[in-house]
Write a sequence for this structure.
């Protein structure tokens, strides 16, 4: 109980792919959802549900909601609620969710809309399980927090190259953890009590270029994305463009990441790129 097998889906220039898990929402059959630490909230594609499952989830007032993600994905639908089951555990009460009725992309962004199955078309993903720590931008909660006991207090994601991975509910970091970043609890007026500032200041070094900024810890994306002004500074390190948006760093470029705070400045990792490292 509490151990959830993760399958890698849609690897893009890497061997890890994106973590996905089987869950149940209300009376639905098992659904395969993207496990996304970069967003908050449960979002299920309505057309992947049976008529009975849909009817038991819908709220009396069909309030429309829209969520837009950093990669340009836009999910539009209505508010609903249902019990949620994962890893043999079920939430204590009905949890709010989004029933997704349409998926689109912002025109200027690369977008994984074809990863999702809508009306029987597209690939196999049937929604998003957003388990980020920051407040949701559309008011949905992190549904893992409603799981019983310690299972709703902590969790970890482990991915193995080429082999999928595991979501461990109720888990804490282990002695084998390579790096730890301490997050501050959100204390601004209006913040939810169990939300965290998951955007600490981190500093990158790529070749002889260095820069600091606020990152997003996002298991729903396997790209490192930098602002345009930073990307231009790195142009001498990458090969010809891969598609219209992504670029591949040349082999032999050293990349390192440091954690920076008022009291700490230590290295998180350092590596030398292979030809398949992207930015």
């Amino acid at each position: 109980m509490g151990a959830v097998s993760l399958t890698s889906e849609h690897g893009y220039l890497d061997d890890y792919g994106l973590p996905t898990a089987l869950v149940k929402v209300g009376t639905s059959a098992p659904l395969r959802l993207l496990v996304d630490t970069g967003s908050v909230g449960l979002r299920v594609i309505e057309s992947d549900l049976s008529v009975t499952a849909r009817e038991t989830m819908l709220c009396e007032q069909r309030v429309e909601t829209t969520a837009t993600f950093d990669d340009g994905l836009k999910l539009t639908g209505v508010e609903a609620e249902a019990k949620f089951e994962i890893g043999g555990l079920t939430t204590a009460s009905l949890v709010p969710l989004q029933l997704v009725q349409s998926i689109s992309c912002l025109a200027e962004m690369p977008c994984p809309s074809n990863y999702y199955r809508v009306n029987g078309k597209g690939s196999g993903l049937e929604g998003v399980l957003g388990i980020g720590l920051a407040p949701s931008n559309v008011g949905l909660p992190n549904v893992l927090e409603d799981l019983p006991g310690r299972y709703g207090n902590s969790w970890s994601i482990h991915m193995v190259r080429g082999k999928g991975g595991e979501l461990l509910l109720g888990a804490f970091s282990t002695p084998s953890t390579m790096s730890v970043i301490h997050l501050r609890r959100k204390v601004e007026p209006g913040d939810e009590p169990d939300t965290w500032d998951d955007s600490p200041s981190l500093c990158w070094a790529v070749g002889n270029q260095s820069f600091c900024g606020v990152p997003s810890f996002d298991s729903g994306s396997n790209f490192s994305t930098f602002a345009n002004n930073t990307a231009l500074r790195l142009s001498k390190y990458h090969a010809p463009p891969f598609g219209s948006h992504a670029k591949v760093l040349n082999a032999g470029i050293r990349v390192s990441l440091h954690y920076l705070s008022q009291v700490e400045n230590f290295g998180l990792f350092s590596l030398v790129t292979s030809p398949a490292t992207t930015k």
Summary: Helices lie at 51-57, 228-233.
